[in-house]
Amino acid sequence: MVNEVTIVVSDDNEKNSKSNDREMKEKHVESKIDHNGEKDNDHETEVNIQNHKKSKIDRIFVSQFTNDYVVTYSKEDNSIVGWSIKGQPQPYEFYKLDELLNKLNEPSYEIKSFSLYKKKLSLCYREEDGSYKQCLIDLKSKQFYELEHSYSNDVHGQYSIGFLPDDDDDDCPKCKKETHGHLILVSLYDHKIYKYCLKNMPKNATTLKYSEIYDIKIPKSLNDQFKYKFCSIYQKKLFLFFQYHKTTILQFDLLTMNLERQYNSPLDLDSRYSSDSRYEFTTVIMNKDKTLLATEISYSTYIFSMENGRLITKYSLGGLFSVGSTPIEFVTLKNGFEGLIVHSVHYGMVSQYVFIDPYYPYRNLRDPGKDNIINDTIDDNDVITNLNRKLSIDDDGNVCIKNGLDESEFHQILNNTTYHKIYNSSTFNEIRSMLKETVEKMEKMEIDRVAPTDIEFEDGHIIFKNNDECDTIHFVMNNPIVPNNIVPFVNPYTFSYKLINNKQNLVLINVEQIEIFTRNQGSINGITCQYQWNNDEWKNTYKKFRSKNRRYDKNFINEHYRKLINKILKNEFNNSNSSIPLPKLSLELHDITNNNPLVENIINDTEALSKFRKDMLDNKINYQQMKAITTSIVDDKELFPKFGSEILKMAIKNNYSDIVKKVIDKIIESIQINSENRGYVELANPSQTNCSYMMTLLPFISSNFLELSKKYPDFATKYISYTSIILSPYCDFIRNSTNTSLHSYSNVYIKKSNPVNNYFKPISSLWTRSKTDQSSTGQQGVTQTISFIVPFPRICVYKNQKNNGSKKKDRNDNHHEIEKINHETDEIEKINYETENNDDHPLNIWNEFLYNPKSILFCNIDSNHFYNWWNFAAIIDFKWRAFGRIYYFLIWFLYIVYYICYTLASILEQNSITDVQRKSLFIISITFGSIFLIFEILQCLWDYKTYFKDPWNYFDVGAYSLPIAASFCWIINKSQSPWLIAISIILSNFRLLLFFRVFKSCGIYFAIILGVAKTVYPFLVVLAFIILGYAQAFLFILRSTNVNDANDPWNLATRYYFANSNEIINNTTTLVQPPNSNTNLFNWFPTSLFAVYKIITGDSGSLSPWTFQDNPLMTFLLFTFTFFTVIYLLNLFIGLLNIAIEDYNKEEEFLLQKAQIIMEIELFYMFPWWKHDKEWFPDWIYYDMPVTEVRKLINAIDNDKTVFNYYLPVISTDLRNLVALVDEIKEEQKNKFIKQLINELQINQKIQFLQTRVENLQISLQDQQVCAQIIQQLEALKQQLINTQNQQTDVQDQQTNVRMRLFFLELNKLDQQIKQIDLQFKQMNLQMNLQNQQMNQQEGL
To answer: φ, ψ for residue 298 (rounded to 5)?
Structure first.
């Protein structure tokens, strides 16, 4: 294969210069020792090297980090030789690969991949039996080590090896913090990353043991979505490839093992037809600045931006007939242009090396052009470095270094656009010195206008002229091709001028501002002002200057401008600054055109962008600057991913609504563009159909969502609505799943292996196997699902998590990223990354978001509930599955223990258990109750307002505190208070019941209970005041005020009289039932309230002692109370309850309740370091939904069967194709197809009619005119057939391809029939001509 003979290399000489110097010193010392004491060994090595050079050199191994040392390999000699290529290449180390020979001492192995660092070479090779093995060869000590790990047979592309340099790792547990290197082995066979320490390697051992192991965690639901897995290491980056029809690439940092970027290649023809057969090691190349990534996917070269994940271009020379299109190396030419060498092979052609522009949007089957083919420059055994140096083997077997590509051959692809950078310390110091000189002249009263002069500038010269009210600046070309029609600049009076930056820029200081000009051939002035600056005081001084006089006033200048410039030197241009301030921009219509070159110069200067970012975060720029610069940045696909998050953050903070709207709309636009990507279609412009770019922009919303939802809820609602259903980048087919409802899972992540888990691995594997067997036997539970992605990345990640993980990276990378100006963009991105995750806050975005208004959280509600907030339901489902249920059931179990102990100790009789046993149960109850109560106190201290707003918390406190108090009472007094026991038992039982809230069947009812109570609370207040009023009224008229009055309880008590058999009452003897407090409930106000409450329930027995006839006022009060309260208000209350129940009998109420429960677990029951677990708090969350549910939703949207509250979700074309909603499209195409068939039948009928006329036509002279008419009709039918074919070509679709071809065959048959009719007419004409000739002959006779 191509990647077996072509080597990917990189040049980082400055980075490793110190280590290389140290190696050279060691090498010279070793050579002296060898020369003095080991001449025999030296002679033997020299002979072996000569034999190696005489044999065929198959490969040159070059390091990814430095090109000072290379290794040549000869399979014929079965040896390798190390070469130092500093200066003239010289061979030094020789090693015979005897360990790789088979039993017959033959080199039957095949090297598949390699990695070289200093004098250590690691190889991945395949043996005769198809097994893959890896080894490490230390050429310095001549040691061979076999790498210890799990091996596999016949597994292609499942291994990758690489090195971590000395200065990139300082945290090895084996070597503490001493500097050393590491060897990395990635094995996708067992999903492991093995890390080998290269310091103090064993001398006499043949196996190198790993020092650390990391697990590559791939969720099962995600693993089922791709067919192939590949891996590749380039320098400090690990790339994992997951492929079926689409290809997803995950980029990990090998130092922190964190996921940095995700790249996605869209579904196209090549990936569809070649992914099933492409099964090899994957080549990955990065450019020098680590901004571009090139890799081979399905026989094509894909180039991505490493800064934002955007797919830039795709190159394939042969299209479907391509055998391979492998990126070789990014090469930088002397003029700064960086191109990519690609090795392309396709059927019917020899292999070709092509040099392409990595930013050009190539198409498949594109001819690269003869000028781009470099077969004469490079062959399969050569190596081209990124500094355009060519390493090859000469005829004597020596490594030779030559110049690489000839730059003169690539003028047509070179980018000659240059920008003169002015935001640097050099420009700042020059202007500062000019300001100082100006002040000194003012102090000496020597300041004056610039005299007329002529200055050489670029390809011409600048002429200064003085007028009465201004100065003019005129650029004149030296040798103009056309007459010089350049328009001069009109400027205010100029104090000083100077040429800076190698005379490429002209600086002017005038009465209005500071200006910097540069040469511009496309400008009507010949030069362009690329910088203008003044502050408010300068602007006011200039207005005062113009208002007083229009001519130059030396006294005014000395009086006002001297103070002004001194202040500027102390503030904007003081010694602490290193760059000139950003230009002052205006949004006035007449100034917008002047802003363009100023803004363009900023966005093309990395130092200017860095200053803009710093000033923006410090609130040192005004709205005009923010508006003008951010507008250009947002429209730039490379800059927007770098600055978009901070622009949105500061725009929200400063209430710049138009900038917020532009950023939101740009992100939504990327979603809409991605949704229009059609699968199986060649990519004409990959940057417009880019899932990676979209996923890079989505975190901008997540990181600023809280502030966005508070200040701009409409924009937040718009984003939530549009992103309701986004197809997962992994998903390109419908898969079968045992999950019958929503099922969520995380992305791929890397986690340090836990030795404890390895002990339980056999048990877990048996459990997994049993579940697999059950799922395979129970096919009735299989459901077809589609995968989606939650468009809120890092919403569950705690803000201080990544700060901890990135400290080490920032510490190690800091000195590399600021060494060169070229790495300024990396520095900007690093600072941006730190700022976003620099707040140590106990909450993450999701937990804070739960306290926002419910209308924001569940805004996109459709009328028929086809869409039930899948994104937020997926977040809750993931948290519950990952850790929520484990914690919750453990808490539940502990509460059950607490509940049983307290209940048994309180209820059991004295003779059932002993006092010792009862005391033990109470002590256990106190212990568990105190633990639960401590967590409640922590919640209250965390946010007491939120805590007291939740009614369930009152039940929790009562369920814990009252049993503790009752238990202490018994322990101290050996007795219990009955009321305390009763209330505590009730609250404990109710708290136990609350644990069922997490189950949907019960949780909805609890949500209804609480929600309805909140809704009808105002009504209950009204009812309470009515009851209070009537209780006072009844108390006033029915209480006893005097002894023995009508309302005295003794007079209201029940009396019994004696009667004989004749019913004659004996009034002399009376039995009176002694009254009690219940005889007249209206004697005391609390009992009066209770009596009125009983009347509401229908019990009016409290009024039975009084007669209605004797107490009309009581009767009236009773009538009004029962009518307005019992009849009217209670029925109204029932109606309100029904309405409230409908409002809260919804799934979102249950989800919100469950989410708050999980949040409490995170905040108060979870250890802080567990909150940093990637498995529980991932960056991205995916979820599966049954196809039937998705189909119902999309059908309802398309057919207007449901209405969303706000915006309709964006539904991608790929999603429609996946859920088979093309059935409707097929139906439309079917109708069109039927119409076309009807047209065909009509044409057939006309043709048959004409054929019948032709057959019945008598051949005569009179019939010639009729035949001509028939011929015209046939020609019209031909044209109609052609038009029909064109229409059918326009409506042709992939799904109806076969049927349309059959239809075209039928049309061709009709065309043949018409041709036959034409032939018959021609024959008829011949016969008629013969008859005419015969008739003429007869007439002549």
So the answer is: 55, 55
